[in-house]
Write a structure and sequence with these properties.
Elements lengths: L1 E6 L2 H12 L5 E6 L9 E2 L7 H10 L4 E4 L2 H6 L1 H7 L4 E2 L3 H8 L1 H10 L7 E4 L2 H8 L6 E5 L8 E4 L2 H13 L10 E5 L4 E10 L3 E9 L2 E3 L3 E4 L4 E4 L6 H21 L5 E11 L2 E8 L6 H5 L7 H10 L13 E9 L17 H4 L3 E5 L2 E4 L2 E4 L3 E9 L2 H12 L7 E2 L12
Parallel strand pairs: 1-2, 1-4, 2-3, 4-5
Antiparallel strand pairs: 6-9, 7-8, 7-9, 10-11, 10-15, 11-14, 12-13, 14-17, 15-16, 17-21, 17-22, 18-21, 19-20
Helix pairs in contact: 7-8
Protein name: Phosphoribosylamine--glycine ligase
Pathway: Purine metabolism; IMP biosynthesis via de novo pathway; N(1)-(5-phospho-D-ribosyl)glycinamide from 5-phospho-alpha-D-ribose 1-diphosphate: step 2/2
Catalytic activity: 5-phospho-beta-D-ribosylamine + glycine + ATP = N(1)-(5-phospho-beta-D-ribosyl)glycinamide + ADP + phosphate + H(+)
């Protein structure tokens, strides 16, 4: 098969790593890709939102399978464009990707189908949002409705802070059109767990659980980011939690989307909160999480192409997902200053170390080539992932591996997986 991956981050590198292992794949392409993905794939400088160019490229190269990794092209309808041209594509169509594309839609869906989530209200009028806040309990959570690179969520401790947040999202348009509508929801306490799942429109098969670290600084301080590291599996995702979610969350979501005339095929990411009152859904994503994919996918035993084709063909019920009996931890190496402002273009050294040892991976997120050298080209630069017999060993291995990599302005959190000690 000839396979094309759309995207250029750490998630797409993890997907490319798995696709490259498939015995069915002869040729792998990626648009736009990055310096790490280029090890397995032929990368072309086509943007993920350049649908016409992607379609023309897929036709020219006679691509058998396109895998759309990123949220923007999914929500924008790239799968529709490719499928309508007869090209098999892994990912939800536009009317199903709304599950991530609109937080107001997903909250209303959960309410309608009794899927447990936090209490909330949707607003398209800033004045009504201000009025609602006058009667609200604090802390409270504000969410821009649309895609905002994982940064459109504000947790506000006071009325003044919340009003400033509404102004930022709805009036100042800090997140652009994503803030045309917003969700104000009750603040939930508890531990977060991420569960990725494969879906074929009817059947859902969940992958191993994980936990992300969203804040930029140690101790969960600082601004929200796209994710600073993750571990897998989560010791807090117990058999009881899994059984509850199987009954009230996972299949219920797939059935709800089908009932709404929006059958979902691809990956649903369930962001869960384990609250004192029980499990509640924090958010949905319509694709692999990043950096969750970097710890979940290296532990998967299945041929990823088999699983993706089963999702497309509606035969996922015939697949048994299998994962290694171990653990993995990913520590993100970022450019100092992320997620606000940072410099690019610094040479990265030490990457060859990962080829010398089994169970260590370096997934590129923001890298490019400059005169044959690999240089930094983003806020999140690399995801250093390591396996271990258990979570503590995996964490030790991951932090050991971060020392192999050198670049100017390298920044990372020192406490990824600290929660493991409390388990």
């Amino acid at each position: 098969m000839k396979v094309l991956i759309v995207g250029g981050g750490g998630r797409e590198h993890a997907i490319a790593y798995c696709v490259n292992k498939s015995s069915q794949v002869d040729k792998l392409y990626c648009v736009p890709g990055n310096a790490g993905i280029a090890e397995y794939a032929i990368c072309e400088p086509i943007g993920a939102m350049e649908f016409d160019k992607i379609l023309a490229f897929a036709k020219e190269k006679e691509i058998d399978l396109v895998i759309v990794g990123m949220d923007d092209p999914l929500v924008g309808g790239l799968v529709d464009v490719l499928e309508d041209a007869g090209i098999k594509t892994f990912g939800p169509r536009r009317n199903a990707a709304i599950l991530e594309g609109s937080k107001a839609f997903s909250k209303d869906l959960m309410k309608k189908y009794n899927i447990p989530t936090a209490g909330y209200e949707n607003f398209t009028d800033a004045k009504k949002a201000y009025a609602y806040l006058e009667t609200a309990k604090f802390p409270i959570v504000l969410k821009a409705d649309g895609l905002a690179l994982g940064k459109g969520v504000l947790i506000c401790q006071t009325l003044e802070e919340a009003k400033a947040g509404v102004k930022e999202i709805m009036e100042d348009k800090k997140f652009g059109d994503a803030g045309n509508e917003m969700v104000i929801e009750e603040f939930m306490t508890g531990r977060e767990v991420s569960v990725l799942s494969f879906v074929d429109g009817n059947t859902i098969k969940t992958m191993s659980s994980a936990q992300d670290h969203k804040r930029a600084g140690d101790g969960d301080t600082g601004l929200n980011t796209g994710g600073m590291g993750t571990f897998c599996p989560s010791p807090f995702y117990t058999k009881e939690v899994e059984e509850f979610c199987n009954q009230y969350v996972y299949q219920a979501t797939v059935d709800a989307m089908k009932a709404e005339g929006r059958p979902f095929k691809g990956v649903i990411f369930f962001g869960l909160m384990l609250t004192p009152e029980g499990v509640k859904v924090l958010e949905y994503n319509a694709r692999f999480g990043d950096p969750e994919a970097q710890v979940v996918l290296p532990r998967m035993k299945n041929d990823i192409v088999d699983v993706m084709m089963a999702c497309i063909n509606g035969t996922l019920d015939q697949i048994d997902l299998e994962f290694e009996d171990n653990a993995a931890v990913c520590v993100v190496l970022a450019s100092d200053g992320y997620p606000v402002s940072y410099e690019k273009g610094f040479e990265i050294t030490g990457l060859d170390e990962f080829k010398k040892q089994e169970g260590y991976y370096c997934f590129h997120a923001g890298t490019s080539f400059d005169n044959g050298k690999i240089v930094t080209n983003g806020g999140r630069v690399l995801g250093v992932t390591a396996k271990g017999a258990n979570l503590k060993e995996a964490r030790e291995n991951a932090y050991k591996a971060t020392e192999w990599v050198k670049f100017e302005n390298k920044y990372m959190r020192k406490d990824i997986g600290k929660a493991i000690d409390e388990a």
